[in-house]
């Protein structure tokens, strides 16, 4: 009976030591400009994923809000972004892996009330280790866009290609550099395209927390036609993140 009890405790200890397939992170960041021109922005990102050798699911929600004013001019909202995504990969650790994805976006600067897309694709992993990850993905998306301004026309539907380059590198277990770029041209004309990129440096404060420097950039070739002031907008943010 004693032997059975010891075996039972050992089994419990082993099950408690087994790593969880679930992981996630939460991040808060912001920037501030003051003087004759004042601008402040803040945002965050929440991610959740579950992965094993057969299936990987990941979801993220990113937000950004900003206000600006100059002397004698009332403060106004200049940034308001929500960007959510869902991905499901089959055999994510294989060299080639098929996946499905869906994203939703609303963007004040780009005069977007909503942009939805969903599609299927394949990922090629050139390098996948605990310290480094390099992959290239290609997908075909069905997209629906609703402009923020009625004068820019009604809702429309578009088929896009989506190419994603993802790079990750961990230097000492606490310092991490990552970069993701999406290039999404229309399937029928390459000069109608969207580029979204995120570059981030994280310097660990502990095993679970880190200081972050993030560069976000979005280029939309159709933004001005919808009433935006520029095709491009970017933001450099400082923040802190926690992972589990």
Name the helicity range.
under 10%
Name the poorly predicted regions: 1-7, 9-15
Largest sheet: 12 strands, antiparallel, barrel
Radius of gyration: 21 Å
Q: Would you count the extended β strands for me?
A: 12
Number of helices: 1
What fraction of the residues are assigned to beta strands by DSSP? over 45%
Indicate the mean pLDDT. Answer: 89
Task: Tell the overall outline.
Answer: globular
- SSE arrangement, N to C: HEEEEEEEEEEEE
Question: Which structural class fits the helix and strand makeup?
Answer: mainly beta
**Sheet with most strands: strand arrangement:** 1-2-3-4-5-6-7-8-9-10-11-12
What is the terminal-to-terminal distance?
38 Å
Q: How would you describe the overall organization of this protein?
A:
The protein has 244 residues and is mainly beta. Helix content is 7%, strand content 68%. The protein contains one helix and twelve strands. Strands 1-2-3-4-5-6-7-8-9-10-11-12 form a twelve-stranded antiparallel barrel. β9 and β10 form a beta hairpin. The protein starts with a helix and ends with a strand. The N terminus is likely disordered.
């Amino acid at each position: 009976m004693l032997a059975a009890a010891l075996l039972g405790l050992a089994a419990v200890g082993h099950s408690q030591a087994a790593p969880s397939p679930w992981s996630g992170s939460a991040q808060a960041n912001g920037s501030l400009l003051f003087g004759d021109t004042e601008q402040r922005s803040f945002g965050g990102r929440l991610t959740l994923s579950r992965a094993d050798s057969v299936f990987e699911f990941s979801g993220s929600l990113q937000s950004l809000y900003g206000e600006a004013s100059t002397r004698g001019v009332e403060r106004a909202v200049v940034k308001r972004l929500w960007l959510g995504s869902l991905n499901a990969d089959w055999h994510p650790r294989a060299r080639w892996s098929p996946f499905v994805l869906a994203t939703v976006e609303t963007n004040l600067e780009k005069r977007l009330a909503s942009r939805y897309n969903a599609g299927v694709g394949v990922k090629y992993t050139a390098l996948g280790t605990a310290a480094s990850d390099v992959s290239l993905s290609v997908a075909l998306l069905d997209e629906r866009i609703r402009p923020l301004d009625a004068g820019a026309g009604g809702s429309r539907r578009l088929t896009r290609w989506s190419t994603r380059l993802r790079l990750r590198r961990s230097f000492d277990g606490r310092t991490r550099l990552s970069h993701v770029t999406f290039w999404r041209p229309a399937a029928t004309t390459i000069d109608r395209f969207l580029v979204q990129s995120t570059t981030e440096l994280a310097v660990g404060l502990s095993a679970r927390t880190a200081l972050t420097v993030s560069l976000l950039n979005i280029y939309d070739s159709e933004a001005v036609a919808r009433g935006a002031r520029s095709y491009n907008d970017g933001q450099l943010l400082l923040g802190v993140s926690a992972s589990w």
